[in-house]
C-alpha cells in the first residue's frame, strides 16, 4: 500500500488567517469521539503535542453509547479473538479513570454491595462505576441460551455466578418475579460516555500543548512517501509527525488513504433511551441489568444521577430514504426497548422519558477493530506517519484505554504482537507503492521543525 | 363576587423604562396558547387594540396538542351539553381558517377522496385539513363499545357511517387486517396547532395595534370596582378596558381574581409522539385514525408534511415528585401509544420517532370550559372588565373559534344565552363585594384615555 488512493484539493493555509497554520504537532488525531479523545489524552500523557480535529466532537456514536464496560457479558460466540483485547482494556480502565479523576481507582474491586443500591462512587469525573452486572433471562428459552453462553464464558476462564431468582430479587427488589434466571458478573462495570468525553476534553482544553481544531478533516497529507498531516474541509492543514485516524465511520471517507487500503466499515444503528427515575423509585437498580427477552437483548444501566439508560437494538438495514440517515430513532425500536425492559423491570413504565437517540456504530466484517499501522508491501514496511483506530463497533467505550495504550506504543515505535491481528489492512489487497502519485495532496512546504518535539 | 381575593405587590411601572408603560389597550389577553391567540385575533378583527401577555407563548398545552377538530368522535357519554358548543365551533372553523389563510375555505366539504391519500390541501398557513376521521376498533369488545357510542352519536343527530373492514382497508391499505370494525366520520377534521399559533402570531406581529408582551402575568389590577388591567411579574403593568384570562391551568394562580371565584382546574397530563413517515410509506394515511384498542383510545393524525402525530394517553395522577411536573413524558405512556398504534397500523414500527412531548391540559369538574364573565352577587351584575376563558381540556383547539367569537360578543356587550351554562363562576360560592379591600393591587393612576379606542 502507501500512496493516496484519492485526491483532495487542499487550499494551502494562510499563515495570517488560520489558527492552525504554521503549527506542527507530534500527533494529529482525526475524530473527537471517546476513542479519539482517549488517544489524544494518552499521547499528551506521553509528552507529545496533540491536535484533535473534529467539527462536532462527541456527537457521533459516543453521544449515544450506554458505557457498559462488559468484556464478560459482551462475549459473543466466535468472537473469542476479541476477548483478550476486551479483558486487557477492562484491566486498564481503573487506572485510566483514576488518571482522569485525579483519584486512585481500585482495580478489580467488584463493588461494595453494602452501599445503598450497591452503587460505588469510584469516580466523580467520568461516571466510572465498578458496580456489577446482572444478566437476566425472561423465559425458559432465554435461560437455556444464557446457560449455554455461561459455559462458553467459563471455558474462557471468566467468572459468571448463577443466582436464584429469589437471590437476584433480594439484590434488586424491582426485578419482575417472572424472570427465568439470573447471573452475576462482577467484572462488568460502567462509565458515563458523555461525562467521560467532557472530562477528557476539559483536561485537554487546559493544556497549552493541545489544540482542539473545530473543523472537519477532508483527507490525509503526504510528503516524502509518508503521511504528513491532515487537510481540512474548506481549506487549511494540520501538519503532524503522526496522524491517527479515529473518526469512526468517517474513516473510510477520508481522501488520501493509502492506495489499496480497504476499511470495510458498515453502519450498525442503535436506538437508546435515557430516562429519569422518579424519587420514590430510587434507587431503581444497584447493578446494570442485561437481559435476554424472548431471544432479544436489552440492557438497563443505572447512573449515579438518578437516570437510567436503556438500549440494545441493532439495525443493520440502511434507512429506506436517506433523509435522516443513522440518527433516525426507530419507533419500533423504542417500542421494543420499552416492552422488553418492562418485562424484566415493570417499574420502567413509571420512568420519565428524557431522550431517545440513535446513532450508527462502525461495524467491521469480524466485529473487531481496525487498529494499528498500515503495511506497505513494496517496500515491506509500515506506511509512515499513519495509525488507524476505528471499527470499535459496540465496544468503543470499553476499548478506549486499550486503543489509547496501543496507539501510544505505536507512537513509541513498539507494537505488542498480541494485537497484530487487529491490523487495519487485514481486509485489503492491492499493489501498493509509496511514491505519491497525485501531487495535489502533497504538502511540499518546508516543515517548521522548530515547533516539533522530540518524541 | 368582585374584589381581589388575593393581593400581589405590583411595582408601579416606570414610563421611562418599560415598553408597556403608559399604554392602554382595549383588550389585554393573559395567555399565549392557541385559545389566547384566537381571542386576541378576534378582538383585533373587531377593531380593538390588543396586548397579549405571555413569557413563553405556545409552550403549554398548545405545544403538545394533536389538533383534531372532532366534535363527533370526541362526544363522550354525559357530555352532551358540550356538544352544541363543539358543533358550533366546528361550523366556525372553515371561516376562521380562511380568515387566517387569506383564502376561502369550504365549509362542510367532506374531503376529496380522489386526491393522493385523500389529503385535502385546504389551508397552507394553519394546516387546516377537512380530511375525514376513521374510527377503528381492535377487538370484539372495542367493536361493541364503538357501536354503542355510534348509537349515542346518531341519537344526537350526528352522522357516523359504518364501513366494512375490507372497505376501510380499501381506503387505508396500511390498516391491520385484524381490526374488528371501522366507522367513517366526515365531519371530524384537523389543524396543526403549532402552525396555527405561528400563523396567528405572525399576522398579529405585523399589526401596529397589537403588542406581544413577553412577560408573565402576576395578577389582575382593579380600579373603581372593576378590573383595569394586568400586573406583570417583576413589575410593570398592562392597563386595559377588558382583560381576558386565557392562560389555561395558570388562571387559578393569578392574584387579584374576584373574591369567592373558584376556578377548579386540574392538570390532565397527556403524552404525544411526533413521527416521520419514511418516503416508501407515504402517504401513511389519508384520514385521521382514532382507535379503541382493548378499551384504550389512541389516535394517529397524518400531517401534510409527511409526519404523523400519535397520542391519547391521559394521566390525572400528579407526578410522584415535583421535579418535572406536567412536562414529564411517561415511558409507560409512550410504550402504550406505540403498542396500540401498531396494533391498528403495523407500519408505525417503521416510522422515525422525532419527538415525545407531554403537557398538562386544564380539566374541569364537568369537562366543560370556564368561559364568560363573572357574576358579582351584590350588586347583582357582572364584574366589569373581566372575561374568563380557560378549562378547555381536550377541546382547546376545536373550541378556539367559538371561544374567540363568544369573547368578541362579550366585548360587544352581547351574550348568547346558549353558552350561559359555561359561566366560569358555576363552581363558586361566597359572599362577594365589589369594593376593593386590598389597595395594594389597585391601579390608582389616571387612565390615559387618549390611547383608548372607541369600541
Describe this structure in words.
The structure is a homodimer of 455-residue chains. The relative contact order of chain A is 0.21. In chain A, a hairpin with a 4-residue loop joins β19 (375-376) and β20 (381-382). Mean pLDDT of chain A is 85; it is low at 5-21, 103-123, 318-324 and 431-455. By secondary structure, chain A is α+β, with helices and mostly antiparallel strands. In chain A, 23% of the residues lie in helices and 24% in strands. The longest helix of chain A is centred in the first third of the chain and has 22 residues, at 80-101. In chain A, α1 packs parallel to α6, α1 (34-45) packs parallel to α8 (396-412) and α3 (80-101) packs across α8 (396-412). In chain A, the strands form four sheets. In chain A, strands 1, 2, 8, 9, 10, 11, 18 and 21 form an eight-stranded mixed β-sheet that branches. An eight-stranded mixed β-sheet of chain A has the order 5-6-4-13-14-15-12-17. The two termini of chain A are 26 Å apart. Chain A has helices at 34-45, 61-64, 80-101, 140-155, 165-171, 193-205, 331-344, 396-412, and strands at residues 24-30, 50-53, 68-69, 133-137, 161-163, 181-185, 189-190, 210-213, 217-223, 226-232, 237-245, 266-276, 288-293, 296-302, 307-311, 329-330, 352-363, 370-372, 375-376, 381-382, 386-390. The A-B interface holds A 273, 275-276, 278-281, 319-321, 323-324, 328-332, 334-335, 338-339, 342, 348-354, 356 and B 273, 275-276, 278-281, 319-321, 323-324, 328-332, 334-335, 338-339, 342, 348-354, 356. β16 (329-330) of chain A pairs antiparallel with β17 of chain B, so a sheet runs across the interface.
